[in-house]
Amino acid sequence: MSEIPGIDRSNVTAWLASNVAGAQAPFEFDLIEGGRSNLTYRVADAVGHRYVLRRPPLGHVLATAHDMSREHRIISAVGSTGVPVPPTLGVCTDEAVNGAPFYVMGFVDGVVLDHPDKGAALSAESKRQIAHDLIDVLADLHAVDVDAVGLGDLARRDGYVERQVKRWTRQWADSRTRDLPAIDDVAALLAASIPEQQGTVIAHGDYRLGNCLTDLERGRIAAVLDWELCTLGDPLADLGYLGVYWASPDGDGRRPNDPTGAGGFPSYGELVSRYAERTGRDVSRIEYYVAFSAFRLAVISEGVYARYVNGAMGDAIDPELLESFRSAVEDLAVGALTTLREGLGT
After folding, report:
1. In Å, what is the CA distance from 28 to each residue of 23, 46, 138, 225, 233?
2. What mean pLDDT comes out for the span 80-102?
């Protein structure tokens, strides 16, 4: 059997057989997703059971940025509610087993809608059903009692946006590779006009169709994935983040990794209204949260761009990839400034 990067086949096999009920060796491992984020593997056992294993990226990483126990804890807690997530089956914190902690979930069938081409293949009715269910699942997530599911101590509850604006403003100062006045203007406007936080919820942090498994036959979200950025926070931050990705019904191709660029999906305004109806929250300042999310994503993209430029990502640099990060920062910054000024009436 060939070696799989990130998997100690012998040790992980023994752990799975001992700790996951019904799992039978031998196991086959297949890397689903790698890169800068956590590594995700599809695992199949000798009798056809399927699982998913998650571990941190290879190499030196910050433990706090890739905390497997925390991620496992969150998904386990959310799984006790009606919010669709993969079932958690076990977590290993002994690094002697696989060189890093990991956890195991049940495999969920579904399609990751992460490209306009995948959106183009859907019927108009499927697009409507999927979009509505995406919002309904978000509303259900934000209705979860954080204390009742044992997540009340996950993070600070108050001042989420204020702390985030300060954090990403500092991060921009540390990672910027050029002057970009739009970013500085956005940071100042965000800091000067922070809305009052409407309660404390489980905030996913990266909520979009590309981070969900979708059941295309039923037009429903089968499972919400990628909880590594999850925290306690302002519910409208998740809704605003979705607005950074969501294209107009005509399809404006805002983000290349989102299916709504194909067109034909309900408008973002329709989704915001549906969320307001489901939750009773005031969404009158949603433009602020869209701008805040675009600002945050711009700073993150600049950080990736800076690491490439400084050689931290290796010597082989794809010029097109490098330019895509650079231009994304500029597009997000300008978009954030435009949205914020429109929302503030300036």
Report:
1. 12, 8, 34, 22, 39
2. 96
